[in-house]
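BUG-401 | component: ligand-complex export | severity: low

The export step for protoporphyrin IX containing FE jobs runs without errors, but we want the raw record kept on the ticket for reference. Input record follows.
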Amino acid sequence: MQINVVDQDYYARHGVPHEQLKWLRDNAPVFWHEGDAELGWPGFWAVTKHEDVVHVSRHSDLFSSARRLALFNELPEEERELQRMMMLNQDPPEHTRRRSLVNRGFTPRVISLLEEHIRDICHRLVDEAEGKSDLDFVTDISAPLPLYVICELLGAPVEDRDKIFEWSNRLIGAEDPDYATTPEEGQAAAAEVYAYAGSLAAARREDPRDDIVTRLIQPNEGGEVLTEDEFNLFVLLLIVAGNETTRNAATGGMLTFFQHPEQWARLVADRAMARTAADEIVRWVSPVNLFRRTATADTEIRGQKIAEGDKVVIFYASANRDAGVFADPDVFDIGRDPNPQIGFGGGGAHFCLGNHLAKLELRVLFEVLSERFPKIGQAGEAARLRSNFINGIKSLPVHLR
Ligand code: HEM
């Protein structure tokens, strides 16, 4: 089989190349994928089986996150500097200190306190959507939801939402012509978010509240605290990591329900299924398709030798369809339980900080939609994002009744 699992045009037209990934899992689970010198990106080991994605994720000593995680377009020096300073692109021990300081804000208990706020946001969004004639699921529902939740989390005033939304769109930096931003625009948005985060922290120092920002700017039990710089960069990372991922999980989930009406009927008949549906949506959609690591020493995966410095790309979307782990992996089943999906990462140091929050958002959104609009349907073609990194949908026309 001809293998090219990074062709952005393919992703724009069809989404994740599941047939090729299946072939790789069955025939060449650690596969040397040629790079493209002309486009300026190196070859890499494509790792496609669940067990191996978990292995790479859990060995950050052997597979470093510190050297650019996405595949394409090496960044200009200033942006690389900014990326380097973000937790996602750091290795232990640098990463460990920051992560332990921010974990406090994202425990299941802290996140569960947000449920009613999230429900209110979902109801408000669909109330507004109800009055519109040309409804787009992305613009009207799935894009504002995670953004408003992050604003709530940060205690950002309602009047700042549009501004933050605009920054977050400029920060996406996708290779899609509809989203393309120049590096200068991305830089400027990052600088604005950075300054804005500083002002949020200053406001909470003056007027502490029972919220995440207040918690994060205070020392932990051991007396350690995030520096101002670390806090501001963390807010930037939240906006980058929390928005697009959740937006695409929700949109991908909705589209999948349109394609599997019997699963939608199950949810409408029993809304309690939204809990297991959230995990199944993340498995099925895998909003983050892949991440790249760099081998720090000579090593092996499944007997295949990997040399120090080699790029290793872990395909979450593939691991999530591995027949060795999931019974009937190509069946979308909202009752799947247990569901060892690894759409939030394969465990280890960088496992998604926002996983409880994202699952709560998905559960509540689909509870609200199935309750209020059991006849919601697709009103036009979905347009996919041109990206091999984010499994994204740019627009999805819907009707509510
Ligand atoms: C890391 C996926 C939602 C914040 C990650 C990673 C993945 C991921 C695959 C990297 C894991 C690794 O390298 O091992 C997703 C998906 C989401 C989602 C699929 C939605 C369905 C969120 C949300 C937030 C968030 C809502 C925050 C509000 C983060 C952060 C990291 C991260 C801060 C970096 C953690 C670290 O480096 O220690 N996410 N994510 N994510 N995610 Fe998420």
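Assignee comment: Attached the raw record above. The mean pLDDT is 92.
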